[in-house]
Amino acid sequence: MKLYLIMALIFHHNVVALLLVLFITNQLASFVIAQDDIDLSKGASYIFGDSLVDAGNNNYLQTLSKANIPPNGIDFKASGGNPTGRYTNGRTIGDIVGEELGQPQYAVPFLAPNTTGKTILYGVNYASGGGGIMNATGRIFVNRLSMDIQVDYFNITRKEIDKLLGASKAREYLQRKSIFSITIGSNDFLNNYLLPVISMGARISETPDAFVDDMLNHLRAQLTRLYQLDARKFIVGNVGPIGCIPYQKTINQLKEDECVSLPNKLALQYNARLKDLLQELNENLPGATFVHANVYDLVMELITNYAKYGFITASRACCGNGGQFAGIIPCGPTSSMCSDRDKHVFWDPYHPSEAANVIIAKQLLDGDSRYISPMNLRQLRDL
């Protein structure tokens, strides 16, 4: 009798345990299946970089680099003209590209509290004003997300996507339907190597060649980590003509059609090597496509031939103060602001206007091999 009771109890316990396992499995399955009604056909953008594409991550950091103050965002329709933390008057290049590719929403800032659940399947933005490839870059701003930290954060998103879609569907979605966009490197020169206060020691001990080497070794490791997390379609921008921004022209007291040679020379040195790196990764990482965006020549074309594109100036910041080109004090509530924002290549001392971003984005989406190779973004999406 005692034996019968023990066996009955064991049987009962096992049945309860089995039912519990079945219940949990069913709940998980139904959670994953419930996501099937999400339209994933348009894919997602996962955006990494600096203030050129930051969509508001720095709003959530204790940092000196912030853009969530007016009049930034004055032409950003989605916020009714209120600042969102974008370092321009309207949309960033990342916003415009996502819109053109038919993605249902802008990639949301990773640090925003509502960046949870199915919203991450439409894209997440990890970019941070002041961030760079090197971890020391942007130290002058106190806080910023370096590329290493941005990849760490994507690793968190990656696990969430597994939970939402299940492992095999998640892998397929990331590898086939998601574009990984990287716009970084300018701050490594402007707010690291070229900053006398912070980097004098580094510059004495490190030649430009060695610094560029260092940058590329770090970037290779960062891109390889993304590949290991199932990224397959990459677009990587080179560094633009940073010697031509209103800030550099103003502090160096240049004429309208002049640029500072050292920053541009460093950018070109890095850019030549970046192209080789992307070629190497295309050959060595099976199934990956690394697209090279020639931002330097694209922006230089806008600066040199601005009138052809409907601009009245490529030297003067629309929003800023100080010096001949309003290029010293960043854009804020007390700044002077131009009335014809769509006629200025530069919104503030450092960043392009929405009108310039639209032209740049158009070339990345549909342009030829002068500016984007081995294919443009629409072709990358359809791969």
UniProtKB/TrEMBL annotation:
UniProt keywords, alphabetically: Hydrolase, Lipid degradation, Lipid metabolism
Pfam family, one: Lipase_GDSL
Listed GO MF terms: hydrolase activity, acting on ester bonds
Keyword check for Hydrolase: yes
This protein's record includes keyword RNA-binding: no
Example GO biological process: lipid catabolic process
Family membership noted in the UniProt record: Belongs to the 'GDSL' lipolytic enzyme family.
Protein name per the record: GDSL esterase/lipase At2g23540
Protein species of origin: Sesamum indicum
